[in-house]
Specification:
Helix content: 55-70%
Order of helices and strands: HHEHHEEHHHH
Number of domains: 1
Radius of gyration: 19 Å
Shape: globular
Number of helices: 8
Largest sheet: 3 strands, antiparallel
CATH superfamily: Winged helix-like DNA-binding domain superfamily/Winged helix DNA-binding domain
Structural class: mainly alpha
Distance between the termini: 22 Å
CATH class: Mainly Alpha
Mean pLDDT: 91
Low-confidence stretches: none
């Protein structure tokens, strides 16, 4: 018996997964020139917007767990992109600050979004309609975050 709800073509999650994977793949050559990965780029975006963030602030912004973000930040520190220092108020808290090398990457990365938009526009046409899904995706992310939080607290069981 084949259930309609279990067909791959009926899965929103598959489309989201595929789009996310392909976005990361398309970005990869640009990041390779900068010597960074997509997750590192996301951290840099946060710090370029507002330097000197705590690990927890970065974690919340990326909607990732601390145990995922911490090794990422350690690699970025080893690469000389950021520094991690203890907070003066609470030594358990780490403050993440861009180094000069991390700051310099902003200038090198500034054209990446426009290049990708241009390439995408050549393939699919006007991006206006595509940009209109951003609020819908934000709503989806918020809803899924609530479900994930509930699931992680063992409140949602089959």
């Amino acid at each position: 018996m084949i259930y309609e709800q279990l067909k791959l073509d009926n899965q929103l999650c598959f489309r989201l997964y595929t789009a996310a994977r392909l976005v990361a793949n398309v970005y990869q050559p640009y990041f390779a020139k900068l010597g960074i990965t997509y997750p590192q780029y996301l951290v840099l975006l946060i710090l370029w917007e507002n330097d000197q963030q705590t690990v927890m602030e970065i974690t919340h912004r990326l909607r990732l767990d601390t145990n995922t973000v911490t090794p990422l930040l350690q690699r970025m520190e080893k690469a000389g992109l950021i520094s991690r220092t203890k907070s003066k108020e609470d030594t358990r808290v780490r403050i993440i600050t861009l180094t000069d090398k991390g700051k310099d990457l902003q200038e090198q990365a500034k054209d990446i979004p426009a290049c990708l938009s241009s390439e995408l526009e050549c393939k699919i046409g006007n991006l206006t309609q595509l940009k209109q899904i951003i609020p819908v995706l934000d709503q989806l992310i918020d809803g899924l975050t609530k479900i994930a939080t509930k699931t992680n607290n063992n409140e949602n069981k089959f």
